Amino acid sequence: MKFFMRNRTIYILLTIMLASTSSTLIADQPVISGISESSVKAGDTCYTGYTWMAEQFANIRMQADLNDKGAIHAAVNAGVSSDKEKKTTTNIEIERLYMSIYGEKSDISTGFMRIPFGYGQAFKPSDFINPQNPLYPEARLKGVLGASAQFYHIQDFKIQLFAADRSDSAHYMEERSILAGGPSLDYHNSLFSIQTLYAIQQPIDRSSNSPVHFAGLSLKFDATAGFAIDTLYAHDGEDSGEPDGLKAAFGVDYSLLKGKLYLLMQYFYNGTSSLKSSDKLDKLYGSDDWYKLPPYDRIPVNGFHEYYRRHYLLLNGVYNLSDYTSISAIIVANIEDYSLIPSIRIEHQPFQGLTLGLTFRKPIDPYIINDGSKGELGPHHTGYKNQLLIDASMRF
Amino acid sequence: MKKTKASLILSLALFMSSIIAQDSPDAKAILDHIDKNERFNTIEYTGEFTVEYKGKTFVKKFKAYGRGNEDSFIEFTNSEDRGTKYLKKDGRLYVYSPDTEQVMLISGHMLKESMMGSDMSYEDTIENEKLSKRYTAVVSGSETIEGQECYVLDLKAIKKTESYPKQKLWVAKDNKMLIKYELFALSGAKLKEYKLIRSEKIAGKNFPVESQLKDLLRKGSRTVFKLDNVVIDKPISASIFSMRNLER
What we know:
Chain A is mainly beta.
């Protein structure tokens, strides 16, 4: 897992804060929990050949409840890594740091936190504040600086007002904050769950006065199988930097053999794509030798986005060999340029709290099969030909 | 003399019929008694379950709240699952994971899965309705289970959609406590087996505080449930059984 060094002073301040809250402010003892993980990643990249990286990582979480009146939440990522190119480096970053105040029928949270949206199983376009990578469904998502207020005045309804800085989550090339905010509404009953949201965001282009508008709708219901629809529409009045269009995911999941086998299929439509089906990736970078640079050195002509084409398919299967061993496969495919990333993972729990994992990924595209076009999810664009990850994680 | 003989026969017949009546009580009344004993307005307890399977032992601890048989809320407190919460409401089951920090509805097709690795499925936890409304019963005999005289009841599901179309219950003759039960598929295959280990008198009810469940499709597996600090019929805030509480 990658994270970035921010400021060691912040970590020291956090530690002091945790120590002080435990002794003075908080009525209940703070609860510390988390995950510690050792991993070795090896693979063949398109640029430096075979490479490896060893990492020791911990996600340490703290929650301190102030009776029933509020809570303080904090989490840090701490890690030490070493790889073929670099000597051992130490990284510490704040993952969460926020507080919540609980009222009679409303809650307020402010700080560095996650503001989740949507019921989509893997692709979840309406979760636009902290988007998830479908290839890493278990990964903890990055936090954003923001605030939210939830109101529970009507049974089964939640009305939420939120505001957040999207600059980290939206791949914008701006170095400043990009503020977004609005209301959302959740409703659950015995047949379905539905969520709607609206958000207005400051223009990304500094010269524009036209804000970006987002509207989201998410629906989950059961009809023998589980169905989820998750959509987000973006409208950018004067081309202030956010591409107009609809993003939508439609997923069906089902389990067989008394839950031993879980299957998921999801289609994702990316109406904000910058490439047409007939376009090559050369158009994305305005050059035909883009693949000579590693992915982090390439700059797309129309800015960074999560996905550059229009139609994607995700297939996921999990088979539980026993209560302690499972095998899962995820395939994310771009069905326009025929590139895909299959990933297979075997997990085993030798004892309570310890999980051992082995993951293999191999990007595939027409270029490696028959010298066809390079695909978005192929090895040249993703930067690696194959990747093997061995990890051991302990929960505490 | 004839009259005396006739009255003797009549008395004997009445006596015999009363014995038969005692040995073959109304099965419906027994089911009603079980339902009554296991019904409560509210319940609150801490608990743990120990899963033994394939030579490994997993212990899960939790704090639970229940309202009627309809709503329940469970928060796991053991270190590996700390912060994982389940809410059962309106016949649906929601889970909150501290890893994803999001509430997820457990889809109907996933309800047959084992809950937290135990011998209990999600489906077992969300059944709301009373036994007497879901099954018809007949008393098929008497047996002694670990020194306790029991009625044996054979239950047949009223609806075809029932998860376990047949059940067999062993009910203590003295206090109508459910001592043991077996759950069957329509084919007659035995799927699950429950055994009461210990009960306590709480709020005037015989309450099972330690029990064992075996999912017979998981060979060699058993889950032992232990409940502590059981409080029955003490008012619990409605906010406990809410999505809001799940997200906190």
